Amino acid sequence: MVEAGHGGLTLLIPEDELRAGVATLAREIDRDYATTGVVIVCVLKGAAVFTADLLRILRAEVHRLEFVRASSYGSGTQSSGDVRVTGTLDTRYMAGQHVLIVDDIADTGHTGMAVKDYIRSLGPASLRYCTLLDKPERREVEVQYDYVGFTIPNHFVVGYGMDFDERYRGLPAIYYFPDP
Ligand code: 5GP
Ligand code: MG
């Protein structure tokens, strides 16, 4: 279905399905962190909107919210294996904590691997990975994603925090660019 107003974008996950999917993830996370609480590490920028929605419906206690940035040196929509983790994360507060990484998309897996390795080096008591979307067809390295919202086909998607050249992050649903 092509929505008017978002030139050429095709709807993939409408708002109500997104809301339901995020709520399902929240209930799984609540169950696993009910007794320990959780420290959340959001992978900027794409996961910012998802993280904000997730946070507001979690019932498990969130002890801390931190942010990292993962940038790959790939060009355009291709991810290269060379991922650098940067950002403002306060490294003092990961040791001994139950840490949950929150990301937008699992694609090749390079970002997941790099962010996990980085947080693991800071000595958390446990480490899990939550991704809103998963494109398993594209995986190049094996990474365990503990919570997956939606498994999707190999499309380049935008909206709900995700961009193409920094645009479209504010769209409330998830869209893709159809093949020409
Ligand atoms: P990786 O390939 O390392 O698993 O994912 C790299 C990053 O590329 C993701 O975290 C996400 O930020 C971005 N990415 C991967 N697929 C898409 C996509 O379809 N749309 C957008 N906007 N970003 C994507
Ligand atoms: Mg990302």
**Beta-strand percentage?**
25-35%
Order the strands across the largest sheet as they lie in space.
4-3-2-5-6-7
Arithmetic mean pLDDT: 92
Q: How many strand elements? A: 9
Bound molecules: guanosine-5'-monophosphate, magnesium ion
How far from one another are the termini?
15 Å
What percent of the residues sit in helical stretches (DSSP H or I)? 10-25%
Gross morphology is globular
Q: What can be said about the biggest beta sheet?
A: 6 strands, mixed
Counting DSSP H or I runs of 4 or more residues, the number of helices is 3
Low-confidence stretches: none
Radius of gyration computed on alpha carbons: 16 Å
What is the H/E string?
EHEHEEEHEEEE
Structural class: alpha/beta
How does this model look, in words?
The chain is of the alpha/beta class and 180 residues long. The protein is built from three helices and nine strands; from the N terminus they run βαβαβββαββββ. The strands form two sheets. A six-stranded mixed β-sheet has the order 4-3-2-5-6-7. Strands 1-9-8 form a three-stranded antiparallel β-sheet. α1 packs across α2 (48-57). The chain is globular. The structure holds guanosine-5'-monophosphate (5GP) and magnesium ion.
